[in-house]
Write a structure and sequence with these properties.
Length: about 60
């Protein structure tokens, strides 16, 4: 599984970090980023809900 955040689209709403704090965080400017070592999001039951919660659909998940 591969998680991608389109930083050109992200508006920093933070819904991903609120929904799946074990996978996402926000950088110093408030934009979403993956936590170190969580690039695949494996095992987090809220990952797909966090993707759906993004108001601008900046996050995609691809099954490898």
């Amino acid at each position: 599984m591969r998680i991608t955040i389109d930083t050109d689209v992200c508006i920093g709403a933070g819904q991903c970090a609120l929904t799946a704090p074990g996978v996402f965080t926000q950088d110093d400017d408030g934009f979403s980023e993956l936590l170190p070592g969580r690039e695949d999001g494996a095992g987090d039951p809220m990952l797909r809900e966090a993707v759906r919660a993004c108001p601008v659909q900046a996050i995609t998940v691809a099954d490898d």
